[in-house]
Amino acid sequence: MPSLDTLQTTLGYRFHDTALLQLALTHPSLAHEVGPGTAHNQRLEFLGDAVLQLALTNQLYRKFPDYGEGPLTKARAQLVNRTTLAGQGRRLMLGEYLILSRGEETSGGRTRNSALADGFEAVIGAVFLDGGYESARELIEKLFTDAWGELGVLPNLENPKGELQEMLQATSPDAPCYELISASGPDHNRSFESAVLHHGVELARGIGRSKKLAESEAAMAALLSLRADRAAAGNPSAIRR
Fold this sequence. Notes:
Blueprint: H1 4-11, H2 18-24, H3 29-34, H4 42-63, H5 69-79, H6 82-91, H7 102-106, H8 113-131, H9 133-148, H10 160-169, E1 177-184, E2 191-198, E3 201-208, H11 211-232
Antiparallel strand pairs: 1-2, 2-3
Helix pairs in contact: 2-8, 4-5, 4-8, 4-9, 6-8, 8-9, 9-11, 10-11
């Protein structure tokens, strides 16, 4: 496993108690292998989820004073869904630092969305305990801004597929296409993963309880990513509708 010093540098946060960071990276599978008394990151994940919700709610509330509860709630849901949080985990390369059981390791746990999303939330919880709410809030705002740029407007939450198509067709006549990656789970609780592609290049993936919802999630993730890329390139139209 790489040094935790490297991860702290990537985070831009230095822990007073590195044991908290190590706990945040400890996957629950380790308890099944070592024993039921083994500490793991689920409690920190629970805490980090609440801190994320508060920090992002506060940011949305301040940045979009003209929007009501409904659109802001939908926007927050997009920011904290499992696909989005797993993406944050990948940007931090958390998979390289996760402490897994042998079985989880061999079955691809380091790249699994659930492990990366849970690890990301646990790290936020660890920062909150180590440095307080302000430290966690500053880190959250930095990470989400780094990932998506300074959004000037909320994306079209009612029709992300339509908005993505409009954005892409402003520079190309070709529409995006969607590809079903996987479908799993029992009939009463199915989970679908879809990818959105443009010119054969995958833009993003999304997960939902129906193929339609998975495609919408993928479109929303692609919109946020494209807006961030264009904002970083200095294109002001990327953040205005």
